[in-house]
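Supplementary Methods S3. Complex input for the zinc ion-bound model.
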Amino acid sequence: MPGGKACILFQSNKEINKYKHQMMTAENKIKQITSEKAWADDKKLNEKMEINEALLQRDIATAERDELKQQLSDLEDAVKAIKAAEMEVFARVESIAAQEIKKIKSAFQQVNKSLKDRGLYYNPLANSQKKDARGGPFIPASVSDLPDKKIQDKISNIFKAADDLEYYREAAKYVPIGKPVWSYWVTSKFGFRNDPFNKKKAGHKGIDLASRTGNKIQVKAKGKVVQAVHGNKGYGNYVVVDHGNGFTTKYAHMHKIYVKKGDYLKINDTIGEVGNTGRSTGPHLHYEVLYRGTPVDPLPFMQAKL
Ligand SMILES: [Zn+2]
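Predicted complex, serialized as structure tokens:
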């Protein structure tokens, strides 16, 4: 009997275990499915998020690119405007230098009129280094580093123009251009005719400028006093200045002499006073301009403008 009961129990246990096993399998299956689903959703979600993120990044990048493009274009416009302004400034500077050079050259031309009458010619470039290649203008290395060839050329031209201007200005400092007395009237003109055969014939070697005794006499070019003579019978008290480029000037009948032989003079230095010494009939300055020892008409020198 007990065996019968046990048999039922045994059978029940067996059934229960069978159910248990089935349930566990099902549960595992469910678990597996659920987790797979969750995993799949996660993946999808991640993908979706990544796409959204990428889209967002792309939009940002596009916006940034557009912004940069605009900034670049603005910058390019600004650079263009600056370049145009620079070129204008350069052109102005160049034209100012050119005008200055033209002015000095025309003064030299004026001077050469009186030299031509005596068969002479003053060439301001005669002793210039400009004739050889080494004497070219100073152009800083930074100029050749400039990326823009047009601006590079323009700046080089300005340096050349500045160099030329400096040269002509320096040359002009040694040419007696201007009036040695501020108040005068011409009482006797330069006396040589426009005749090459008359060159050696004596005439009036200078110009007589009547002025008051004591009026100041100024040199109109740099130079060195080579003569400062007192009491000459003909010229009275007189001074001769060598300007070092072929030009010399002579100042005669002076009342007082302020300088001595060997003195170096700047433009507009006062060398003495108008007087009536020597062979003179009234207070005046007898003014001579000589080129390579030949007297030339001082009037065009006095009328030339710098
Ligand atoms: Zn005279």
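The CA atoms of residues 289 and 298 lie 6 Å apart. The pocket of zinc ion is lined by residues 188, 204, 206, 208, 286 (CB under 6 Å).
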